[in-house]
Amino acid sequence: MVRTGIIRAFGGELQRIIGRAVSNRLSAFVSGIFVTLIVQSSTATALIISSFASRGVIALTAALAVMLGADVGTTVVAQILSFDLSILPFILAATGLVLHGKNRSSRTRQIGRSVFGLGLMLLALSLIVQTSEPLRDSGMLAELFSSLTDEPLIAILLAAILTWVAHSSLAIVLLVMSFALGGIITIDLAFMLVLGANLGGTIPPIMATLTEGDLARRVTFGNASFKVIGVVLMLPFIGVIQPYLANFGENPARMVVNFHTAFNLGLAIIFLPVVHIAGNIWTKLIASSPLQDNDDDQPRFLDENAVNTPVLGLACATREVARMAEVVDQMLRGVTDCLENDDYTKVDDLIELDDRVDMLYDEIKSYVTRISRLEIDPPESNRVVEILMFTTNLEHMADIAESLLGALEKRSKMEVGFSKEGLADLLTLNKRLTTNLTLAISVFMSGDVQIARQLIKDKTRVNKMQNSFVQAHLERLKEGRMESLTTSSLHMDILRDQRRIHSHITAVAYPVLEQAGVLRKSRLKKTPI
To answer: What is the pLDDT, as a whole number, of residue 491?
Structure first.
């Protein structure tokens, strides 16, 4: 609840914070601490950073530095939760319920969700401590844990598996802390279990990024390698580190959480200066996949990890829509090439682009629909509608362009040609389509009111131009021009389809102008009484 609420409320801000803070490894490290303190989970931070890395927003070296900071950040959370906060859980839970009221804004409700979740975390910790108190008299449990003390590898593996199941190293560290506080386990065994929890915390991000591409996997595997090396280096010193940690507090719970913090601080001190070396190593170990890089028929920017963060998810969808628009633009430019150069060698490839547009349309629609089911603010809801409308219009444009290309190819095989004037008219109109599609993409991406106005004004001009071209064609038919007679049906169909395409292009401007309050509600005159 804490992670979901914070990411939904501040997802965009988190991206900007990380984006500004990755200029050097030290600032990236600090940003990792800060973000993890907000989202209360190094796993969540790992998924966010991996997502950014897979989209090229952050370099691998900076991403690894952020992850080192995230691991330290989660120990700070553990430090806070280790104090006696007996009344605070109920205060936080009540505050969260109030903030999550129906009449609150979406962001306030998400903050309330996080506050309530934090209260539940503190309450759960106190219940764990209370429940574990009778276990200190259990002979069977004491025998089990005493056997684990002599088997450090098994103890580490057990804690790693528990952490993987729980998807939270913080939860397992707090559980170990409560066992140590109750005298159920020795301090040495507690330290081993903490090492295992740190190892297990790297498994969920690895599993989540196995299908996310090479850039994302380099981040999660690189961070896991830091933990593995750290555990191997620390294990021989388990028995001698206890007296040093006792100087900061002899309470068993305090020693456990201090060991957790010291371990991750030590990793940062050791590996932060050499993250560039680690990045180069993992770049070689996980090489780029040529198939992945060249797979144009699959979505590139629809990041599954961003679905639960409407701001980030809609940004991903917007980038994918822009890519879809580029495919439609390629088809329209292909129509121009067919008319201008009478070259149909690439027409089959251009027609197949419609399948790519259809696939992207389905994927974007499904992705945005899932985002729309979340609690989102009115601006985000409006953006969902804009994305669905624009992608629908792009899909219709691609269908019309496919039909045009097929008709033109059929005409070329019949060895009949347009009149010189008619061909010039078709080319002029089609070039206007590609120009205005560029403007439409700009309106969709930026919401610029002036460009939207320009598009609507140009719609009237294009309609007049199309009407004049129709009249000119009819005049040529009256004159008995042979080229016009043989291509009349196709010529009229192309002019009609070009007008339809332009209507779909300009449709993107209406929501922008409506939100700006510069669009009349109706163009109809009042009916006289």
So the answer is: 86
204: Cα separation from own chain's centroid: 17
State what percent of residues in the chain have pLDDT above 70: 88
Backbone φ/ψ region at 314: left (φ over 0), alpha (ψ -120 to 50), beta:
alpha
In a domain, 411, yes or no: yes
Residues 205 and 310 in one domain: no
**Tokens at 304, concatenated:** 């599954």
Domain boundary among 263, 292, 321: 292
Residue 203 lies in a domain: yes
Spatial neighbors of 427 by CB under 8 A, at least 6 apart, are 336, 339, 340
In the chain, pLDDT over 90 holds for what percent of residues? 30
* Rounded-to-integer distance, Cα 147 and Cα 476, Å: 99
106-132 helix and 169-181 helix, angle to the nearest 10 degrees: 30
Query: Residue written as tokens 């539940």?
Result: 120
Closest to 317 in 3D by CA, of 407, 241, 213, 388: 388
The C-alpha torsion from 509 through 515 and 518 to 522, rounded to 10°, is 80
Q: How many CB atoms lie within 10 A of CB 451?
A: 16
Radius of gyration of the chain (CA): 31
Distance between CA atoms of 130 and 179, rounded to whole angstroms? 10
Domain that holds residue 457: 304-516
Let me know if residue 299 belongs to a domain.
no
Instruction: Quote the number of domains for the chain.
Output: 2
Burial class from Cβ neighbours inside 10 Å (0-12, 13-18, 19+) for residue 214 reads middle
Confidence of residue 406 (pLDDT cuts 50, 70, 90): confident
DSSP string, 169-236: HHHHHHHHHHHHHTTSS-HHHHHHHHHHHHHHTTHHHHHHTTTS-HHHHHHHHHHHHHHHHHHHHHGG
The residue type of 459 is: K
Would you say 267 and 71 are in contact if contact means Cβ atoms under 8 Å apart? yes
Q: What is the sign of the dihedral through the CA atoms of 261, 266, 272 and 276?
A: negative
CATH of residue 493? 1.20.58.220
For residues 386 and 440, state if they share a domain.
Answer: yes
297 is a domain residue: no
Residue type, 488: S
Same domain for 375 and 440, yes or no, is: yes
- The pTM of the full predicted model, rounded to 2 decimals, is 0.59
281 plus 250 within the same structural domain: yes
Return the structure tokens found at 143: 């025998």
pLDDT in tens, 340-386: 887 777 888 889 999 999 999 999 999 999 988 887 777 788 889 99
